Structure prediction request, 421 residues.
Amino acid sequence: MPGNSGAATPPAPGRRSFLRGLAGGVAGGVAAGAATGYGLHSPGTDPAAQANAALAEGRLPAVPFHGAVQAGILPDPPLATAVVSLDTTADGLGGLRDLFQTITDRARFLTAGGTPPAVGIGGPALDSGVLGPAVVPDGLVVTFGIGASLFDGRYGLALARPAGLTAMRPFPNDDLDPAQCDGDLILQLSAGHPDTVVHALRDIAMNTRGGMQVNWRIDGFSSPARPAGTVPRNLMGFMDGISNPPATESDDLLWARAPSWAAGGSYLVVRLIRMLVEFWDRVDVTEQEQMFGRRRSSGYLLDNDTSLDATPDFAADPTGEVIPLNSHIRMANPRTPQTASSRILRRAWNYDRGTDQVGDLDMGLIFTCYQQDIRRQFEAVQTRLVDEPLVDYISPFGGGYFLALPGVRDSSDWYGRALLG
Prediction:
């Protein structure tokens, strides 16, 4: 993947027309900040020393922004995330281009880091200051995508909608809340620490005011692997994402091929799943393991206590005496030649939103997955999981189907250019 080229490219004349609804002074200050992209370091500051100081305080190094595919898809996910669905309010196709270019500019800067410019007396702040005087990258990755509703009549894009991009389909056992489903856009911000995520979200929101508004949002976290060297756990206590397929930039399970403007993108499913932990915590551990098909403490398969990476041998257990036929791992991936093409690249975070209106704990899983074809892959997996035993302890309530756009290749490129340009 090509390296990051540094400061954002100054915008073309007329960009950010969606900002005209702001008061004149504020709009001018925001647009100016977005145009400069900020310097990568303040005068007289050694950028290497700045980077070393960030690493010393536990921040992650910068992840290169430019590349044929988006940087947030392939690597193991950072510990903190925010998944935000948005609806566009930009005027016309030109306004939509402005919006996508501005999001690109901000993502390019935020993932590289730098020092915001000084503001004169009476001028609006160009940065929230959440990260201090300098913006540290902290491994920030920005994943940006579009939903089926973007292709309605507002922007003249109806004929460009990929056939595989639709509104999210409800499944039996779901309890979907329309207010927490789908959206014109999806923005996922992931980094080493929550304050980095919050800072990036506020920066993008400030610079795109008038162009988009939040539809729904959820924040998540991933715990360190315990024991070390294993896989992070979900809030049911089980390791999550052990058997992901190896992912590469040439993976036929992962990347969109058509239409041509989507090449290098990947279909993204977001599924918000509440876990009914008060009930789950009363279930015998052996019964929990039977539902998952793995040991809770080690993550090992019920038929293999020697390796976390072992492949289940379902053919040797045709009646499910060791790994039950209705266990999660067996229903999700039966390991047959017919189901090999339905594998997905799974990325998941835990969430904790406190308590609900009756005092029950509101926590669960932000499930996301990437694939080439939602119907062939995610929907096939989810159909097999209908009525699995775990449905008594989980309640899917939101999410959506999206297309994560192709990557931004260089400093002259921007999100969605092949579609909107």
Notes: Residues 1-17, 19-44 have pLDDT under 50 and may be disordered. The longest strand covers residues 345-355. The radius of gyration is 22 Å. The beta strands are 80-88, 141-146, 185-191, 212-221, 266-275, 345-355, 361-371, 394-404.
